[in-house]
């Protein structure tokens, strides 16, 4: 529902939203883009707030708020009204995905995180499939019901569903391992021990590990800016997602059929995403599992650029959507590459996903209606962006390999006070000596 709330405007466009609100093509592109202005800028402070609050309460409140704003979009009468709704929907939505990945990283080890994160990301992918199917049903059956246009019903119904999910999440979501109330003390202890064993340090912030210090540590870690730029370029390359119903409409079918055709590529992408993440966890490898699906997108763009055949272009959409199987693991890689302290990890996830979504904002202007029906200039822009992302991913891989070699040479020669405290805490949790925990720390290596 998080992603449906961001992309349902493209489906609504097919049923008259742009015409009813008297929007020019540039204004519609601006409506798409402005959400990411608030969405991107709020992610870093949101993850910093998450550290100091109960995630179950904070995330649930944000879900309800974006559901309310999404439903309110149905009341928009002009460009100003829908622009304001899009700005305000981006603020609460910014808490969800980076916050969810950070919360998962507080419960699962490095060798478990990829599949769990991919299951969450599968919600994004499947929303593109069933969001289109849901939109097809609402737009065709509800249009004119009680004198309300179908695209307005789309926002009302999907926003209401989101609010209901938000209230349920309040009772379902866990908090941090040491503070979740509905598990036993033994289970809380086990959750903390598992993470301590994984990185040979307790997954815990100490007095000097404030949200602000975590942000400073993250911003000065050279891996984090490279991850952020890589994600920005990647999401520019994958920005076709916001126009997918428009792209399927160029195949020459009516609105309902176009929305139905938008579903199968995303079902395919969901399956590929889960299988790729499962194997990523099993193999402890990151680069090829992340960049490999992007190379399939490049092939998809080349096919679409080379032919005007309807069948070939539709096949290329399967390859394009499959690229999200790699995108699903980017924040997992960030979490693996910036494991401790938690404050730094939370800030790094917020920085990478927040800055990265600027690529989606830029991409809102890359798929111009004037370039329809084949959008060749858009595809060249996207293809170039994904090639650049692949280069940066390879650079991160080389950087992590170098850091592993450095760890082999002089691991733990100098311990900071907070790092020493986390190792002592890990020893205490596992019931081993400090020296044993220190030896385990010497065995820690980054996954690349």
Detail the poorly predicted runs.
none
Overall number of strands: 0
Order of helices and strands, N to C?
A: HHHHHHHHHHHHHHHHHHHHHHH
SSE-based structural type: mainly alpha
Q: Compute the gyration radius: what is it?
A: 22 Å
Helix content: over 70%
| Total domain units | 1
How would you sum up the major sheet? Answer: none
CATH topology: Growth Hormone, Chain: A
Name the assembly state.
single chain
Tell me the strand percentage band: under 5%
Number of helices: 23
CA-based shape: globular
CATH superfamily: MFS general substrate transporter like domains
Subcellular location: Membrane
Pfam families: MFS_1 (PF07690)
Transmembrane segments: 57-75, 81-105, 117-139, 151-173, 224-244, 256-275, 287-306, 312-334, 346-367, 379-400
Keywords: Membrane, Transmembrane, Transmembrane helix, Transport
Task: Produce a short descriptive summary.
This protein is an all-alpha fold and 448 residues long.
Which features does this protein show?
globular; 448 residues; mainly alpha; Growth Hormone, Chain: A
């Amino acid at each position: 529902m998080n992603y449906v709330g961001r992309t349902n405007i493209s489906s609504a466009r097919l049923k008259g939203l742009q015409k009813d609100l008297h929007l020019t093509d540039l204004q519609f592109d601006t409506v798409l883009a402005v959400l990411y202005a608030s969405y991107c800028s709020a992610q870093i402070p949101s993850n910093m707030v998450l550290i100091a609050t109960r995630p179950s309460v904070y995330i649930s409140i944000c879900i309800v708020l974006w559901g309310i704003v999404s439903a309110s979009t149905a009341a928009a009468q002009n460009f100003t009204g829908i622009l304001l709704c899009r700005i305000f929907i981006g603020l609460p939505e910014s808490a969800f995905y980076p916050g969810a990945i950070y919360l998962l990283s507080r419960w699962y080890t490095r060798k478990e995180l990829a599949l769990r994160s991919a299951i969450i990301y599968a919600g994004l992918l499947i929303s593109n499939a069933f969001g289109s199917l849901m939109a097809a049903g609402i737009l065709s059956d509800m249009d004119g019901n009680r004198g309300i246009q179908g695209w307005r019903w789309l926002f009302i119904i999907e926003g209401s569903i989101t609010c209901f999910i938000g209230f349920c999440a309040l009772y379902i979501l866990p908090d941090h391992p040491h503070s979740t109330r509905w598990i036993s003390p033994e289970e809380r202890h086990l959750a903390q021990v598992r993470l301590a064993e994984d990185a040979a340090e307790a997954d815990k912030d100490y007095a000097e590990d404030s949200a602000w210090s975590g942000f400073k540590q993250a911003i000065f870690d050279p891996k984090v800016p490279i991850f952020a730029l890589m994600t920005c370029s990647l999401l520019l390359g994958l920005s076709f997602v916001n126009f997918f119903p428009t792209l399927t409409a160029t195949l020459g079918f009516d609105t309902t059929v176009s929305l139905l055709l938008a579903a199968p590529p995303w079902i395919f992408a969901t399956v590929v995403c889960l299988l790729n993440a499962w194997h990523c966890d099993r193999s402890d490898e990151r680069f090829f599992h992340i960049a490999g699906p992007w190379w399939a997108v490049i092939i998809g763009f080349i096919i679409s650029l080379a032919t005007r055949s309807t069948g070939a272009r539709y096949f290329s959409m399967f390859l394009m959507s499959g690229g999200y199987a790699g995108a699903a693991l980017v924040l997992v890689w960030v979490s693996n590459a910036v494991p401790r302290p938690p404050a730094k990890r939370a800030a790094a996830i917020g920085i990478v996903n927040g800055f990265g979504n600027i690529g989606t904002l830029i991409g809102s202007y890359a798929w111009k209606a004037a370039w329809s029906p084949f959008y060749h200039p858009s595809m060249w822009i996207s293809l170039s962006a994904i090639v650049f992302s692949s280069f940066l991913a390879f650079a991160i891989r080389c950087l992590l390999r170098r850091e592993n070699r450095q760890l082999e040479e002089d691991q733990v020669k100098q311990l900071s006070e907070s790092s020493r405290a986390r190792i002592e805490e890990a020893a205490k949790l596992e019931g081993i000596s400090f020296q044993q925990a220190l030896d385990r720390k010497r065995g820690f290596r980054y996954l690349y």
